[in-house]
Amino acid sequence: MTATLPKRPVKPARPSVVEYLAEAIFSGRYQPGDFVPKEIDLCEQFAINRSAVRSDLRQLVDVGIIARISGHGSKVRDYEEWNILDPSVTEWMTRYASPNPRIQREILAFRLDVEPYVAMTAARRAKALDLVAIEEALEGMSRHLHAESAEEKQRYSDHDVAFHVAIFKASHNIVWAQLSHILRPSIHLLVETSNDSTADPEASFERHRQVMEAIRARRPREAFLAAREVLQGTAEALGIEPGDGTLGSWLEVAPTATP
Questions:
Q1: Which of 46, 71, 129, 244 could be stapled to 15 by a disulfide with Cβ–Cβ 3.0 to 4.6 Å?
Q2: pLDDT tens digits for 211-224?
């Protein structure tokens, strides 16, 4: 008989200071300008050594979320300093930022600045396969429009996100197409939260359908305005005022020329 070696006991993962602080910061318990707990306090709270704490704090420093201030501790930086395109940051945003209206407002303001233009460009450049992807996503939303279970509601939101990502890709702009992958978690955050909050899911679905129809009909102006209506509906569902700085709130797009 061949002797079998005893299995080594699996070493439990150490408590994650970075996840604890990310949740506290992204949910809004620590605001920009606040100091997070000192190293020594985190060591005691998580029963780990100072080197491990510093390693986790370094992850937040590297993505611009906190700054180390000698003799004072670690301070949460302004949102403008955060590297929101870093995969770790977008993941934390998806998991932890839903209770934080300020972060939601920043994401929404960005989408209002960008997505109407993306839809307008997609109306000019979309190819047949792009239209198929947009239509399939909308059909998926239609199938789960009156979902009652949590699983069905999740599928509706997944198709909703796919709808927006397909429009980014249909722009055939390499930067916007890549941006859709990076921003997908952020888009998902607003989509899922607003879909749970909306008082009229059929009206929301109809606004999405109008975006698709404008893109399919090659009507850039109508696509721009329809995309803006979708995001204004998102703002209403979330109870958020996106602010006055959004380009889409004032720009008038020239009417589409008729042949």
A1: 46
A2: 999 999 999 999 99
